[in-house]
Amino acid sequence: MESAPAAPDGAIPADRTERRDRRRIAGFWVALFSGTAAANVLVRYMRAARDHETFDWFAGIVDEGSSALVSLLLLAVLIRLAARWPLHADTWRRLLPAYLIGALAWWLLHVSGMVALRHLAHALVGGRYHYGPWPTQWLYEMFKDLQTYATLVSAVHALAWFGRRRQGEATLLAAPDDAAPVEPVERPAHFLVRKLGKEFLVPTADVEYAQAASNYVNLHVRGHDYPLRITLAALECRLDPAVFLRSHRSWLVNRRCLRSIEPLDGGEALLHMADGATVPCSRRQLPLLRQALGGG
């Protein structure tokens, strides 16, 4: 195991890297759906040419474009929900019914959205659109949508898994089976971070703040966020209360990294940290935080 590497001078800030990665992922999905829509239009044209039929380019582009556009909008929602409620070995049984309901919602919203867009597009050029008979056409689309949904759920979780491996994922040190622990397990002095096949020891004192995110807590260390699978309340019990203070139901801050408190209207506050980040402080926690800091 190695010590956690310090961020090199001139390194790209973590938040900028994350924004760039999000843009790249968004560009990938847009390119994928756009390319698929264009390929489907081409296939429809080639089929019409093979059968010596007239091909309506406008209808073909509207049909495939509307389906791709609604799918992209639904995918953005799916990505957020999957991040909020990810499927893991210990959660998939509990979350599976919700994901199955999501599959039906995907089908209904996808068909309804693309049909509405097609009616609008044809109306704008003075035409009319007919989707097909119920229930035959809707059930035909359902089987396609369920396959698409299952594929996208798998792809979204696979990308998230790879992102966590590249970013690094923290775990608490456990006591060895055949020897005494090298440090107190109940009050850990280090976290173990696994990143792309390597393991690093991150000193607990280097954690600047921690933010709850669903069943994870993101540990912010020198410009990097390492997800730790634990609740914020459980983590708070394992950390030194003289160093780590609760500022919000979703945040813990290292008092040594706190630089200033900016009061806000309504009794809340913003905590300005050493790295330039701001952390919220709730109205309930602000007097407790000030008391812990010795401010009365």
β-sheet strand percentage: 15-25%
Overall mean confidence score, pLDDT: 87
Structural class, from helix and strand content? alpha+beta
Number of helices, counting only DSSP H or I runs of 4 residues or more: 6
The Rg value, from CA coordinates, equals 26 Å
Order of helices and strands: EHHHHEEEEEEHEEEEEH
Uncertain residue segments: 2-14
- Would you report the number of β strands? 12
The portion of residues assigned to helices is 40-55%
The span between the termini is 43 Å
Biggest sheet statistics? 5 strands, antiparallel
Oligomer: single chain
Q: Estimate the global geometry from the Cα principal axes.
A: elongated
Question: Which strands sit side by side, in order, in the main sheet?
Answer: 7-6-5-9-8
Tally of separate domains: 2
Q: Can you give a write-up of this model?
A:
- The protein has 296 residues and is of the alpha+beta class.
- The chain has six helices and twelve strands.
- It has a five-stranded antiparallel beta sheet. A four-stranded mixed beta sheet has the order 1-4-3-2.
Q: What is this structure's SSE topology?
A:
Layout: E1 2-3, H1 14-50, H2 57-84, H3 92-124, H4 136-167, E2 169-172, E3 190-195, E4 198-203, E5 209-213, E6 216-221, E7 224-228, H5 232-238, E8 244-248, E9 251-254, E10 258-263, E11 269-273, E12 278-281, H6 285-292
Parallel strand pairs: 1-4
Antiparallel strand pairs: 2-3, 3-4, 5-6, 5-9, 6-7, 8-9, 10-11, 11-12
Helix pairs in contact: 1-2, 2-3, 2-4, 3-4
